[in-house]
Design a protein that fits this description.
131 residues; 47% helix; 4 strands; two-stranded parallel sheet; two-stranded antiparallel ribbon; alpha+beta; 18% strand
Length: 131
């Protein structure tokens, strides 16, 4: 599909393939939001003028995430698999930190309020400045 032009960005993530349609990733688009994983940052940068929002944790925040997953009812194997994936994603995100910071911002999630108190206000400011 990607080779036929259907997907501009496609990759395997945890055994599943995900694609982002070429028709939705185009320069000049007003606002498009894609939830993707850090390894695809360079590909998105090549297809459009994205605003990257990087979210990661500091190493000492791993217990916060573990407790969150326990409260949510995740079992131990799921929690361990997710924490392992978070470390992989964090390494990818940090390897692309210069690109993220040049075209967005890197946020450190410290608690359950980070999105509402930091990310959304920052994103609103960016969108308003581009209108």
């Amino acid at each position: 599909m990607r080779h036929g032009g259907t997907f501009a960005v496609a990759d395997e993530f945890q055994g599943n393939w995900y694609g982002f349609p070429a028709t939705e990733i185009k320069p000049g688009s007003k606002h498009s939001i894609f939830n993707t994983w850090p390894a695809l940052i360079p590909e998105f940068a090549a297809h459009a003028a994205p605003i990257f929002i990087g979210m990661t944790i500091l190493p000492e925040q791993e217990d916060f995430l573990r407790e969150r997953m326990i409260r949510r009812g995740d079992d131990t194997p799921t929690i361990e698999r997710r924490l392992k994936q978070i470390k992989i994603d964090d390494a990818d995100l940090r390897s692309h930190a210069a690109l993220v910071n040049a075209q967005g911002k890197l946020f450190f999630v410290r608690d359950d309020t980070t999105i509402d108190t930091q990310i959304i206000p920052w994103l609103k400011t960016i969108i308003m400045s581009r209108n």
